């Protein structure tokens, strides 16, 4: 079977990876994205409801909408997008990088851009019996659209900033929302805690979810059993939806299973030069995974990294190529696409 070789394969589909894909297409590189999750957007998926203020020229925009814009831009030049495949190994055969994913699939590429953030985000799952079967119905570790929970009875478990933020967002939308935390005092920012305690939400501190009771179909959670950690007394709460926010762990297996010499720096990072080259020729990096003394850990910084990395990829493959791509405002690649846009803006 003939293997298909890409010019660049981008490992990670967050802001850095998505802008890398767009700019790779602009520079006429055959491009693939490999993303471990079933959706693009990276860590923005953790705070889809939060307003993002620090992307130049973009007005304050919810994180979920920023994802939509980034994906739309990334798809302009039709990259190959592979979802739900966690990259776990990098090898090199006959001068070509081979990325192996958890499914056993192999992806071949002349170069790689590491855009995996601080690793694969894994939600810390609740350890209640049979909890996994409810993940297909009404047990959630991520809520992309708060409106989907409107008018419902929602229980949120967690005590950090994200859990408290979710409760404050859901309180005016839901029929009722209850926050459960195993300790007495919440760990979120005091202003958000004060807002929660003064609002419509119910709070049950020193309580732990110990059991889920299914509905008549056996497929959805109908009631949640809470146990008081001090007295052992049980309370049963009827629910429509359950949201678990116990934090995330991050996994960087690809650093442990590669034969090309790619090493992690300070547990999470790829050490790069200022132009985003790693210590391994042909491997570059963009976004939060990057470490150098001038690194800017903002989404805007991820875009800068992506442009640098792609330009280095182009020069690596074609040493005589220009050091950077032509700016979009004067680039003929957009001539046809600009026709309807100009009509929309200028009439």
Automatic annotation (TrEMBL):
One Pfam family this sequence matches: Pyr_redox_2
Gene3D superfamilies named among the record's database cross-references: FAD/NAD(P)-binding domain
Domain FAD/NAD(P)-binding: 6-300
Upper taxonomic lineage: Bacteria, Bacillati, Bacillota, Bacilli, Bacillales
Keyword NADP attributed: yes
Cofactor binding description: Binds 1 FAD per subunit.
Gene Ontology molecular-function annotations: ferredoxin-NADP+ reductase activity; flavin adenine dinucleotide binding; NADP binding
Domain of life, source organism: Bacteria
SUPFAM superfamilies on file: FAD/NAD(P)-binding domain
Amino acids binding FAD: 35, 43, 47, 87, 121, 288, 329
Keywords: FAD, Flavoprotein, NADP, Oxidoreductase
Entry's family note: Belongs to the ferredoxin--NADP reductase type 2 family.
Record protein name field: Ferredoxin--NADP reductase
Enzyme Commission code(s) on record: 1.18.1.2
Keyword set includes Cell membrane: no
Cofactor: FAD
Catalytic activity: 2 reduced [2Fe-2S]-[ferredoxin] + NADP(+) + H(+) = 2 oxidized [2Fe-2S]-[ferredoxin] + NADPH
Assembly behavior: Homodimer.
């Amino acid at each position: 079977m003939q293997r298909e070789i890409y010019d660049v394969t981008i490992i990670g589909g967050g802001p850095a990876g998505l802008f890398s894909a767009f700019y790779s297409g602009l520079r006429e590189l055959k491009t693939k994205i490999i993303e471990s999750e079933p959706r693009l957007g990276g860590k923005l998926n953790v705070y889809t409801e939060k307003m993002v203020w620090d992307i130049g020229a973009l007005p304050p925009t919810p994180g979920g909408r920023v994802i939509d814009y980034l994906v739309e831009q990334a798809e302009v030049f039709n990259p190959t997008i592979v979802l739900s495949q966690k990259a776990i190994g990098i090898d090199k055969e006959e001068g070509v990088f081979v990325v192996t994913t958890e499914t056993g699939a192999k992806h071949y590429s002349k170069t790689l851009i590491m855009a995996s953030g601080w690793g694969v985000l894994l939600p810390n799952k609740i350890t209640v019996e049979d909890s996994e079967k409810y993940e297909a119905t009404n047990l959630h570790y991520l809520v992309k659209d708060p409106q989907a929970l409107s008018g419902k009875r929602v229980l949120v478990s967690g005590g950090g900033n994200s859990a408290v933020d979710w409760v404050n967002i859901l309180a005016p939308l839901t029929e009722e929302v209850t926050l459960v935390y195993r300790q007495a005092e919440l760990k979120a920012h005091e202003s958000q805690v004060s807002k929660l305690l003064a609002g419509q939400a119910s709070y049950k501190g020193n309580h732990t979810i110990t059991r889920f009771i299914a509905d008549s179909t056996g497929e959805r959670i109908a009631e949640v059993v809470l146990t008081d950690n001090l007295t052992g007394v049980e309370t049963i709460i009827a629910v429509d939806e359950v949201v678990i926010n116990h934090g995330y762990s991050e996994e960087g297996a690809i650093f442990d299973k590669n034969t090309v010499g790619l090493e992690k720096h300070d547990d999470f990072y790829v050490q790069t030069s200022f132009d985003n080259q790693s210590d391994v020729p042909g491997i570059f990096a963009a976004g939060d995974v990057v470490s150098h003394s001038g690194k800017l850990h903002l989404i805007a910084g991820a875009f800068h990294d992506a442009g640098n990395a792609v330009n280095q990829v182009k020069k690596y493959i074609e040493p005589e190529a220009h050091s950077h791509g032509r700016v979009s405002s004067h680039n003929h690649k957009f001539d046809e696409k600009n026709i309807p846009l100009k009509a929309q803006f200028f009439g």
